[in-house]
């Protein structure tokens, strides 16, 4: 009997082709569209059939009909709010810069979807991520970079567990984006040329401060001071939630030269300003470690580490620095080490693990 797989279908071309490829490989495919988040305006638009969430679900439904596979729309709004939106808000209020996609991947797209898949009798879940799953010689599962570095999504997947990876398929990782669109075109899928989504799904207008105001109200810090590293007041800022380490644009500081955010101090409501060179550093500490390709760090180890999604990576020495804490020392200084973001460790294109930057 064919193995059953639940495919998370977002209405985009990648997840649609994932469903198509798995059906071609002989799997018994079930499509699930996850309803994650809707603001008040979106709920009103959904009632009229005009919001993006509604359109995405309809696109996924059309693809499922074309592939002749069952399709379900399941609400994950509660777990999404708890694990992603609330986390996002609290991190910004604490002066850190979160990565909501990483939290969403582990706790919603995988953990919640695995439970839904089990209820439907599925052996696996699958997504349209640009990554590959491998089992290493040590017996552990890891995500491996896809065939095209330009689209690689392994950074945002470092936090998945061994249990989750053992029940996951990622068929898209063996193809380039161009090949995926060609497959969709040949298969007659209506989403073949649908543009990629570029924004955080729950903030489509990119206005983070306004979203935080709506979610946290009076808890959002008000204006404070820009200060130098020595504590000299340089001007007034709009509130720490408007800034992130490494930021240059939008500071509205008349310094006569480019200046950058080097640190955010939530306790004093200060944003520290420095020169371009001050944004670079060669050492960071991380916690909330998730080991993937390696079981644990048993001694100093050289890896390639990425400190943000778009970072190309840099050679880095990992050393234990206490319980659930790793010291990362880079061979060359890296730009904008940002508390709240993830640092992800690689070896031979495979993710060894990662953690949250302190």
Describe the structure.
With 358 residues, this protein is of the alpha/beta class. Helices cover 27% and strands 29% of the residues. The strands form four sheets. It has a six-stranded antiparallel β-barrel. Strand 10 (260-265) and strand 11 (270-274) form a beta hairpin.
What portion of residues belong to β-strands? 25-35%
**Number of helices, where a helix is a run of at least 4 consecutive DSSP H or I residues:** 8
Which spans have pLDDT < 50 for at least 5 consecutive residues?
44-50
Oligomer status:
single chain
| Bulk shape | globular
Would you count the extended β strands for me? 17
Rg from alpha-carbon coordinates? 22 Å
Mean of residue pLDDT values: 93
Short description:
The protein has helices at residues 13-24, 40-48, 52-67, 77-93, 100-119, 162-166, 177-186, 208-216, and strands at 4-8, 28-35, 71-75, 124-126, 131-135, 141-145, 168-169, 224-227, 233-237, 260-265, 270-274, 280-291, 301-306, 314-320, 325-335, 342-347, 350-357. The protein is α/β, with parallel strands linked by helices and 358 residues long.
